[in-house]
Write a structure and sequence with these properties.
Elements lengths: L2 H13 L3 E7 L2 E4 L2 E5 H8 L3 H17 L1 H4 L4 H34 L10 H17 L2 E11 L6 E10 L5 E7 L7 H11 L3 E8 L6 E7 L7 E8 L2 E6 L7 H17 L23
Parallel strand pairs: 3-5, 6-9
Antiparallel strand pairs: 1-2, 1-8, 2-3, 4-5, 4-7, 5-6, 7-8, 9-10
Helix pairs in contact: 2-8, 3-5, 5-6
């Protein structure tokens, strides 16, 4: 794809695009009054992760052995709360590393300030991401772009890390991951969800005094993301993992969206399905003697 032609088409589409108001919170993305599920939440509900159970058990056991002095004299309820929460503290540490990398990318590609007061580990990851970006030497089309789909699984939305076009004229979506455990298959499905979006929000501007933003909506198509990749960032460097066959993962995306929606529709704290799966119950009466 010719970068000049792509940019020309994007500018033309943006000029005539309608404006929408959108906001993001823990429930998802609200775009023009409609709530869209997060891609990560949709895939998290639709793709089983049995390894997380083992990881959680191991994390609690390791914390209990290494921090016995913190919980052995606590009341039972407090000790249980501390031990049960130990995996989440590890998750928060990983999230801090990811935040450092993403803020570094935003600073290098936009007009924001470089992140400050990073730990040694976070700074090493940030430096690795910056070095990768320089060596990649691609034309950057956008960063932190929200895309959404109205039709699949009741609708979803997500924010991709980096949209670029390489020196060969190929468009890419890159997602930066900082997991210590490496790259996992469901990460590739997340990228396919971005690729298969129908719309993108561009030229976003925060609304003064509020939590919403105003943006223009342009059509999105797979041609805008001919290749997909995960950039795994560690303190020792960054490695690109191109996704081999995105089209083969589309059925997985569709299945995950369907299962996740069904789980959401049938779940209830009152134990009564929101969507009735069964007909009215039939009670069999015994024969009178």
């Amino acid at each position: 794809m010719n970068p000049e032609d792509l940019l020309s088409n994007l500018h033309a589409a943006t000029a005539d695009a309608r404006e929408v108001t959108y906001s993001v919170n823990r429930m998802g993305y609200t775009i023009d009054g409609k709530l869209y599920r997060r891609v990560t939440s949709m895939l998290g509900g639709g793709i089983p992760k049995p390894a997380l159970v083992g990881w959680g058990i191991k994390a609690v056991a390791e914390f209990a052995l290494s921090h016995k002095d913190q919980w052995e004299n606590l009341p039972k309820a407090d000790a249980l709360k501390l031990l049960k929460g130990s995996p989440y503290s590890q998750r928060d540490d990983a999230a801090a590393r990811g935040t450092a990398v993403h803020k570094t990318l935003e600073a290098l590609l936009g007009d924001t300030e470089m992140p400050q007061d990073l730990t040694e580990d976070e700074q090493a990851c940030a430096d690795a991401a910056a070095d990768f970006l320089a060596l990649r030497d691609s034309k950057h089309l956008g960063t932190e772009i929200t895309v959404f789909n109205d039709s699949l699984g009741g609708g979803y939305a997500g924010t991709l890390d980096l949209w670029e076009i390489d020196r060969d004229g190929t468009t890419w979506i890159l997602d930066y991951k900082t997991s210590k455990s490496g790259v996992f298959p469901d990460m590739a499905v997340q990228q396919v969800a971005y690729q298969r979006a129908e719309w993108a929000l561009v030229k976003a501007t925060p609304v003064p005094g509020g939590e919403s933003s105003v943006a223009k909506v342009i059509p999105w198509c797979p041609e805008f993301a001919q290749r997909l990749g995960i950039v795994h960032v560690t303190p020792k460097g960054a490695t690109l993992h191109p996704i081999k066959s995105p089209e083969s993962l589309v059925p997985i995306l569709e299945s995950a969206a369907t299962i996740s929606r069904w789980l959401a529709d049938t779940n209830s704290f009152r134990k009564t399905p929101k969507v009735r799966v069964y007909d009215e119950p039939i009670t069999l009466k015994g024969v009178e003697k």
